[in-house]
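Ticket #4471: structure export looks truncated?
Reporter: QA, pipeline team
Priority: medium

Steps to reproduce: submit the single chain below to the structure queue and open the exported record.
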Amino acid sequence: MTRTVVLSILLGLAFVATVHAPPVEAADAARPADAAPSASCPGFLDQNFTRLRSAERLNLCKAFAGKPLLIVNTASHCGFTGQFEGLEALYQKYRARGLVVVGFPSDDFHQEAASEAEAAEVCFVNYGVKFPMLAPSVVTGAKANPVFRELARQSKEPRWNFNKYLVAADGKVVGYYGSTVSPESKELTSAIEKLL
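Actual output as written to the record:
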């Protein structure tokens, strides 16, 4: 093969790799994948989810027990999709202090991408998301995944995309922030600072 063909193949493989979910960051993988969840980890977080555009399974307790979480229902084609940038900035700013941002893509409001590949491209390529993104799931109503059923019980059900739930390490929701509350808002960042 010519150098040009080899280079083209390598560049193509590099692009494909960037569209797949990034690996669990070292700071987020402090616990081994097969470790038992902490006794203090709430049951609603002791769930296995598939990462976005990946076969990798992620148990929220095993991966993030003892850490505060900012859980967000996301969508790829929403007027608030640009909040991915702010969410990533929050994750980078506070992850060394323990905060983990977790994205739950959902088509509950009919604005998610038609395929996981497209959703992954929006998150990982267009917005440079490094925080954990899970495969699309239901976040409202009787068919909501267990995490969002409990979040709704403790606070309120998402009314639109990009609702943010600040969850303490013990599983208690300490703040609910609707779509119009930006990740950079003083309201949200002050609550994060207080929690950490």
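Status: closed, not a bug. The export was complete when the record was re-opened. Leaving a note from the reviewer for reference: The CA atoms of residues 88 and 129 lie 6 Å apart.
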